[in-house]
Amino acid sequence: MAIKPTEDRVVVKPAERETQTASGLYLPETSKERPMTGKVIAVGPGKRLDNGTTVKPSVKKGDTVVFGKYAGAEVEIKGEEHLIMRETELLGILQG
């Protein structure tokens, strides 16, 4: 099953949750925080303005993005967790 987002929506696959701390301690499943970075899997055509024109999205498939802790709606696609959010919920694009 493939998904094609509408308007200015973006499908993001969140980064894997951390299983260890920097000092080497293993984290239990309940204490793992939701990742706030992920990879863009699909991008909609863009936001449609009142005058009928479409604004092209500033992100593209493959970009690594940062988003808010509670941003987006969680969906399961092919057995994997994804987030669908509006482009305005993205905080930035990681480069380098």
Provide the fold topology:
Blueprint: E1 9-14, E2 37-43, E3 47-48, E4 54-55, E5 64-67, E6 73-77, E7 80-86, E8 90-94
Antiparallel strand pairs: 1-2, 1-7, 2-5, 3-4, 5-8, 6-7
Q: Write down the CATH class.
A: Mainly Beta
How many domain modules?
A: 1
Biggest sheet architecture = 6 strands, antiparallel
Question: If strands are numbered along the chain, what order do they take across the biggest sheet?
Answer: 6-7-1-2-5-8
Our measurement of the CA-to-CA distance between the termini, rounded to an integer number of angstroms, reads: 31 Å
Chain-averaged pLDDT: 87
Q: Hey, roughly how much beta strand do the residues contain?
A: 35-45%
Helix content: under 10%
Structure report:
With 96 residues, this protein is mainly beta. The chain has one domain (9-15, 34-94): 10 Kd Chaperonin, Protein Cpn10, Chain O. It is built from no helices and eight strands. Strands 6-7-1-2-5-8 form a six-stranded antiparallel sheet, with no helix packed on it. A hairpin with a 5-residue loop joins strand 3 (47-48) and strand 4 (54-55). The protein starts with 8 loop residues before the first strand and ends with a strand. The mean pLDDT is 87.
